[in-house]
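This part of the workshop introduces the protein records we will be handling. Backbone structure tokens are a discrete shorthand for how the chain folds in space. Once this layout is familiar, the rest of the handout is easier to follow. The record below serves as our worked example for the rest of this section.
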Amino acid sequence: MTDLAKGRILVTGGAGFIGSALVWELNRRGLKNILICDILGSDEKWKNLVPLQFADYVEADALRHQIESGSKSLNDITTIFHLGACTSTTETDASYLIRNNFEYTKMLAHFALDRHRRFVYASSAATYGAIAAALPETATLESLRPLNMYGYSKHLFDSYAERAGILPRITGLKYFNVYGPNEYHKGDMRSVVIKAFYQVQETGCIKLFKSYRPEFRNGEQRRDFLYVKDAVGATLFLAEHVDGGGLYNVGSGEPHTWKDLARAIFSGLAREPHIEYIDMPESLRPKYQYFTCAHIDKLRSAGFKHQFHSLDAGVCEYVTHYLIHGRHLGEEEYRK
């Protein structure tokens, strides 16, 4: 058991999508002794931080320097949630991805383990590659073939941790298709929910990629969609109740079609569905996943009994409570 109220919590990527949602939930639980690390850059993810409460903020380069120099300023950190990374699945600079997603994770993992700190980090369902079946964590890492460099950069650390014998002492989270508030800044990497919401607002229709495999009709490609509040709930549960444990799938365990998702968005907007199918860019076709579904028996076996939002309920809340109003997590509380 890990008591998150004892000591300081470090959240890398804390201004990002899942990271800021995690800080929001920690705040809801009364926890504010949080050090947020990120690279704010020139986008607008800083807006995710405005309603949140935390003790301090540090840029990623400064944190690296503090760790490498042995700064005592980090001595009170007891739990690390490493959610910071380059999450672009279309990034082609392999060296950049290695520095940000592999080497930085190695540094933080060893920092935590050398000091007997709790270390929870984001892996990704992208590490599974093109496997079209319910995906269990028991699949050997050496059998996985990621389809893009982002997935490979995540897979590289998972594999390193296994070879180095440290994987059982840490917790890696293979997030599936997460959607929800606080992803406004993500550009092309935003979920289809927010992209489709704006499409409907502008054109009245949702455009989905055609299928290029005969066993899947247009719009019937399937994904395991997960509401960000559920992703955060699973993350905090594992941090508190599991001592290491290695890799865990964090998904709903139920696949839905893109048509299901589109219809849920139209329902949230109280509009009749209007879907159009468009050509998929040729560069994307060899890397496209037609089916993803998390096998979550390991998560359930760890004692996580929480019932995830249904697709309809999660999308409806996201659309009606956040997207329509342009809200971020915590803004309601912040404005009181």
